[in-house]
Amino acid sequence: MTNFKATVHVSLRSGIADPQGLTIERALPALGYTGVSGVRVGKLIEFGLDASDATEAESKVGEMCERLLANTVIESYTLSIVDESEDLAGRES
Amino acid sequence: MSETESLHRDLGLTDDEFQAICDRLGREPGYTELAMFSVMWSEHCSYKSSRVHLETLPTEGERILVGPGEGAGIIEVADGVAVAWKIESHNHPSFVEPFNGAATGVGGIVRDILSMGARPIALMDPLRFGPLEDARTRYLVDGVVHGISSYGNSIGVPTVGGETVFEECYAANPLVNVACLGVVDTKLMHGRAEVPGQVAILFGSSTGRDGIGGASVLASAEFDEDSLDKRPSVQVGDPFSEKLLIECSLELIRRELVASFQDLGAGGISCPTSEMTAKGGTGIRIDLDNVHRREPSMEPFEVMISESQERMLAVVESEDVEDVLGVCAKWGLEARVLGEITKTGRVEVVDRKTVVADVPSLALAEEGPVYERPIERPHWMAGINAAPAGDEAPEHYGRTFYEMVASPQIASKRWVWEQYDHMIFLGTVIGPGGDAAVIRLPGTETAVAITTDGPGRLCMLDPYEGARHAVAEAARNVAAVGARPAAITNCLNFGSPEGSGVMWQFSEVVRGIGDACRDLGTPVTGGNVSFYNETNGRPIYPTPVIGMLGIVGDPAVAVGIGFRDEGDAIVLLGTTELDDFGGSEYGKIVNDAIGGTPPNLDMGAERALHEVLIAGADAGLFNSAHDLSGGGLAVALAECAFASNRGFSVQIGGTEPHRTLYSESPSRAVVSCGQGLVDDVLALAGRHGIAAEVIGAVAADMCDFSVFATSLEEARSVWEGGLSGHLSARVE
Amino acid sequence: MTARVGIVVFPGSNCELDCERSFERLGASTEFVWHDDNTLPDVDIVVLPGGFAHGDYLRTGALARFSPIMHSVAEHAAAGKLLIGICNGFQVLCEAGLLPGALRKNEGLKFLCKWTELRVEVPGTPFTARAERGQLLRIPINHFEGNWYADPDTVARMRANHQIVLRYVKNPNGSLDGVAGISNERGNVLGLMPHPERACESLLGSEDGAVIIGSMLDHVMHMQPSPAGV
Question: Is residue B364 part of a domain?
Fold first, then answer.
């Protein structure tokens, strides 16, 4: 078993109005940041997960997203799986 | 100097206080002990500067079952029906982090009510901010209201009213007060551990490093470089846990599994363990290893004074422990035995088999310092009292009227209260926006009326008179809906008690509250003092917020402020003095003046007005009733019209009509009644010696003051937009 | 004979007492059903009340659908019996797939507690039998996530099948098509954001909620076999 770090990013599906994103998109130019577009607000969910390999981890997390972490009627998600031990090595480079 | 001796000042203890601790213990305190003393002897927990004054307040009455000193005052409102009523402040945390500061303020007062064995059934939120032109203020308003809404709505307790006041002096020191009403569920509880051998169980959320205030310097003294990691984190509210805590606690009481009870708030575990044993003449031996923690490697002192939210302490018979843990488990709450009640009279704290604290309960809870701080009337008082009150006539009556109703102070607060669930429990007979909320108590046909009032500006001009006004207006609000004023709770918000001027204001305010409460027969059931509301040496106005509770015989007779039927007569009750503009809204909004002295307040006339309002409501004479306060007659009439979308036509005479329109003489109200009942209303007022005059009638769609008139629709939209126009960030 | 109503209580439910009071006021007998139980008692109507079922920190209603009682609730609905989800209960029903669509944050990004006017679009359902078509009902809302959404195909199918039962006269939250309450295809499950149980007493401002609750009780009573067997 390897301990993976799972990161799930949930946001409203494209095409569904995101009033939080709109509010931010309007506020930023007021502060002088021009050229901002397409602001979307979402949720970041992180957790550790034991799995035999990355493929198994990914399929487990995908299932979690479908069943609980996202409501696919209005939300979409992306997920990433990182082997914690490799991650440490990666961070140093 | 020893290590602890050099720390006490950073912890907020004076050299004398430190010496007193050493004398009491016969030795120097250890780290953990010093931390416990620092919180228990803090101003917040010990009332050391305020106590000598608060002791002068009237606290007893036929209906008062429990007065100050417990979690909340208890008032018997009908045979066998008792309510808990208490107000608290969460000013400082809300300035730092408005959302969580305000949210955890709600959580704290709710647990106070719960600790008495009462189910929390209504909240009120008196809020004070700086001017809305300031972006930081808008951020604070949004965060505070959202915090209250998020927490109160989730735990399922309606927020039925409050105040939203804007004044320059609160810009750097907003006031976030919160009052809670509860109804005793099955059994009145108390926070007293009287029986050695009983067991203390800590249940609810885990304990982390939240809100370790001044005491955090203990850590930074040890870990200079790492002090950032040890910085006290802001308390974060978890309303779901609070909701579970409410249901779990009430179930424990219903099943008679609890001997006594106290919530954890300021002072963390130190507070209920020392207070309950001090009151009960017992001691406690605490095993810190049993505290369910959120973070590893917490120091014992941190565990003892952490202010993590959503926790309660129950003292139970040892044979009931399993059942208690079972009930907690059903509600998904962590619960563990914290320690055992002993005969020692001491709070002993054991951490990993080592005793880290061993101090007398009484020393912590009841033998803190008591100060009679210097008092001096500030030199600037004469100047401000001689300054103009701003009673010059307006240039244009119609524009001035709009300016008044559009000012955030007077404008509709709908933007605020629509974010609060104000209806749950099916008891909100009169909700936000009226003079007082009328709440039918669950499972009964008894109702109470509650309101809050805190005229800071009047108290700045004259703290004694201002405080009398605060009590009188709160009582008038309650009487206006038809309730008899019964008791108050108070939240006293002030600057630093170390300033003699602030302390003078405090002593005068307390004297004023005491006199007014004696005159009106409304004892003080408890409350809260919040000092140190000042920034860069500039204190807030002295702001006593009075939470008045009144009793309504039958909720069906409660009277709202909105006019009802076109053609109804409008009657002004009480006497208008034409020069009552000291500290008035008109003076400030129209003429930018804050000066003069508060209007003269005759408590005899005030009481008589209440009798008229209560008797008129009982007899069903009134179709509406509204007291006159900020903005005087003009604003009161407008509010009656806006509330129900019925206009009015009144005759305003005199050579300077603005005086009749905007003077803020107290002890007045405007009522409306069917034309056939006018004589009855006038006769009723006459019997009580109250002046009464028919000034006009309810009309269709105009606000017609005879000297000028506006369309109701336009005036109403100006009033509706006065606050929300500053705050709404609505996405179209 | 009275209608038997089971009110499901999740740990963070908070409108269960109000539902009890209003259903009983209109003549039903009620009992609470703990979310952790596996089976419903013998009831004619199941109510999922408002509140914050499991704190709703992830998403409103997201965890409640996994509560043990929900299996039995789904069977109750599958048997054609009446099921109503009010506010949080509506959110749970959508999450559980017992009703189409999902509820998003209010468009104005504020919690809203206010009176609303609803138009009865589909009379004659077990939930609206006491109403006329187009009748206006004054019933309050109390939510942050009441902005209903479903994809266009679903909405078209629902319209054709008369599942959009209640609409706001003035849309308070951005809900698609002004939807305030919807039913399932079979018509025995209703979800709505407004709180009918808060509008059953004139002292509290309206009795229009009794139209919905009363219709449900009528429906149950009519379904009972006549005692004389006639």
Answer: no
